[in-house]
What does this fold into?
Amino acid sequence: MTSNLGYALLGLLARSASTGYDLTRRMQRPLGWFWTAAHSQVYPELARLEADGLVQHEVIEGAGPRPTKRFRLTRTGRAQLRRWAAEPAARPPERDPLMLKVWSMWLLDRDAAVALVEATRAEHAARLEVYAGQSLALLQHPEPLADPATPQFAAWATLRAGQGYEQHRVAWCDWLLEELRRDRGSADPPHHD
Amino acid sequence: MTSNLGYALLGLLARSASTGYDLTRRMQRPLGWFWTAAHSQVYPELARLEADGLVQHEVIEGAGPRPTKRFRLTRTGRAQLRRWAAEPAARPPERDPLMLKVWSMWLLDRDAAVALVEATRAEHAARLEVYAGQSLALLQHPEPLADPATPQFAAWATLRAGQGYEQHRVAWCDWLLEELRRDRGSADPPHHD
DNA sequence: ATCACCATGTAAGCTGTTACATGATTAA
DNA sequence: TTAATCATGTAACAGCTTACATGGTGAT
It folds into this structure.
């Protein structure tokens, strides 16, 4: 019954115990490259995980107006995380807002289409640079990257996937720009409103 | 105020007028490769679009127990679709269940990890074949593919993106499998529960 | 003095999924 | 006669986003 968000939190807690606040921060990067959550989602989910016996908290001294809780994985939680990680992942229903726009791109004149694709390309290229920095940081300690049983290896694998994705998007943008620019004949859109 | 789903429907109606039922079917393929919706979402959305003056319906003869409605784009709807298509697309918060599993893959023994990645690779390779078939179908009429002002060109561009994406995923799986298999020393997972 | 950071929660609203509901026509 | 297809809707629920709410400590 545990949700994807729940497993994201378990995955963070398997690395180290944290407060809800800290988990929210750790969700931003690098986990946030492929799964995000706001704190308003994190706190109720932690309560659910605790009700299911997958995590436990102890109250520690902290700065907030309410008691500060440090959560850690239980043995049950760790076992369930392992079981879930081994099951094949369900393909998510892809929802790509850019492709939705491209789907209706035939209504645009060439300049508008080119501008859209160029803006997209720039965003993906920028993300690639962020990943390159992250990559350098990981390569500072290359030993664990060779061992699939380390969390560093897992982070490395997801980063590689992110880089591959961005490279594919940049290449696609370049292809599309070439196609759009090759077309010199029909600069007019099909209908003007 | 129109949602992505609304623009998906407008994008379909810009190609041809349809009933809600037919729009639901047309959402499956090829639009469904990057945006899906169930009929329970389509009907209320069509009502909203009509309230906003972006689509209009006429009642036609049909098979259902209720009046059958054929929807078409209004001039306002077409103009709004064009405006929206030209604006840069917001990057969606990426949510990739596979990467979530990979993030916790360091808890698995090598065989389980390999099995997971192999299953993933097979799925992406299968999708590539589907796209290849779609590609052949589009290439039966190659003329409009050279003209960015045709809906065929737009469909072609999204298909190209889909192919690039699947290729990148397959390549990433192959890289990861190699990494996992190269590691012969630490076949044991870090903790057994 | 004001802002950022630590820290935890609730509430309202939107999007999307699954299930419920109806009923005619056509093909196996 | 049984199932698939055409055809349209509602309801319940899950997940996520945005906003509301509180209050202490340390830096500028």
Summary: Residues 151-182 of chain A form the longest helix (32 residues). Chain A is about 60% helix and 5% strand.
